[in-house]
Amino acid sequence: MKITHALRGEHGAIYPLLDIIQESAPVVGIESIRTQARILRATLMSHADIEDAVLRPAIERYLPEPAPEPDGSRPPSDHQRIRAGLEHAMDAGLVEEARRLLIQTVEAISRHFAKEEGVIFAIAECELPEEVQHDLGARWSALRRMPPAPQPRA
After folding, report:
1. Which residues lie closer than 8 Å to 11 by C-beta, 6 or more apart?
2. For residue 33, which of 2, 38, 57, 98 is within the disulfide window of CB 3.0 to 4.6 Å?
3. What CATH topology corresponds to 3-63+75-143?
4. Would the pTM count as exceeding 0.85?
5. Would you kindly state where each structural domain of the chain is located, as residue ranges?
């Protein structure tokens, strides 16, 4: 299995969770919002950590360099911003603030997925040889503790 197919599949499994959160966040209490943020963090950060460990190093040379922060430092990645948004939602003291932060983060996740599916995965599929894409898919499978997918026959 190609790495991009595996990661797209994970996106497909996460989209319904994002939908549920967007539907329920406006009407639930702070404990439910914190629980939703914890569940989303566990699910999404596991996915993001695999992307960062497996896919990103293979395509990094094909990605544009992000503009530096005003102080010259490297800006946080989308994954770091999303993680911080979820942490802030879990730590918020007022339900309105927690709700706003969680909804903003869910919207950021949706934009990030669109960027990955429209640009990042396309770069991987265009620039990486087919064999490398399958090798990365095997690494994904191992990290997910799944049996390796059969390799396509030439």
Report:
1. 47, 113, 116, 117
2. 98
3. Four Helix Bundle (Hemerythrin (Met), subunit A) (1.20.120)
4. yes
5. 3-63+75-143
